[in-house]
Every structure is written in structure tokens, then in C-alpha cells.
What does this fold into?
Amino acid sequence: MIKDSCDLYSALKADVALYPKQGDSFFRKIINCLVTNPINTQHQIYRYVRALRFAEYHGNNSVLKKNKSVSGLWHTMLMMYYYWKLRQISYKTGFQIPPGTCGPGLQIWHYGYIIINGNARIGKNLTIYPGVEIGHKVPGGGCPVIGNDCFIGAGAKIFGEINIGNNVTIAPNAVVTKNVPDNVVVGGIPAKIISRKTL
It folds into this structure.
């Protein structure tokens, strides 16, 4: 959870390292925006991730979190701005990722819908592809908790009040509805352990 400016810039540093074209100088960023392959327009994807971090930071310091000071009002206005910005970029990218769900080091490959329930919790260093849905089985039900250093392939679905361990690879189009231990590869419908990772 991003509570202060140190948390914010730590998360931004972890994120931008995964989008190398966005960490360059201002001039290089402009060149990269103009010559990026349209299949993977990093600048729009990174804009979404960056707005996600700022929305979480300002939301956690807003009047909604019992910060009734003048700074709380300022954070509330900025939170509303970044929520608006997220919606605008969401129309282009198809991403529906609520603030506060994903830890630092979020790497998204390509445009396409990605839906994550606001009650899901995902650790750091997540790599995710389009077509992924993470949420509850029934309205009001529990949501997944996913560990660190996970990879979720295109079209994977993760539903229910389950725990996904650290360093887990979820194969494309897998449907995960049960707990998954650390250091495994899962796939299929319903998802089963395909192999174990050696450390």
C-alpha cells in the first residue's frame, strides 16, 4: 500500500524499470513515442500504471481516509483527477485495475482487457497479459490473494477466495479456482500443477 511519498517513488522506480523506453530523457521519450511499434505502445501502458500509483497515493491521504486537514482536501482533489485520468486511459487500453490492488513492479504487455476486482491483492513484480480476469465467483464473495514474482498468461481467469503463492506461472487460458503453492507452473481448465520450478 502506498501511504507516503517514499512508498510512491519506490513503486514508480520499480515500475519504470520494466518500461525502459519511459525512463529515458524527455527527448528520447518523445522519439520512442513516435517510433514505438503500435502493437506495444509502452508510453500509454506506462501512463496507466503511473496514474494508478498516484491515484492510490492521493486516495490513501484523502479525506476519505480520515485526513481532515487542508492537505487531505488537496489529496482528495488530486485523487479525483487521477481517477478521471485512469478512466480516460482505460478507454484506450482496456485495463480495469483499481488502485491499491497491485504491488510495485507491475508489467503489462500489450493493450487488451484486463479486469481485476478491487478486493484482490497482488504482490510485487507481476507480469500480466491481456484477457486476464481476477475476481470473485459470486457477487460479494472473496477475491484472490496473489504472491510476489508471478506471471499470468493471456486469457487466464482467477476466481474465488484463494491464495496463489510466490513465483507462480499461470499458463494462458488457465482457469484457477483453488489454492496454488509457491514455485509452480499451473495450466488447464480447471488449472492443475504442470511442473515445479527449481530454484
The first helix runs from residue 5 to 16.
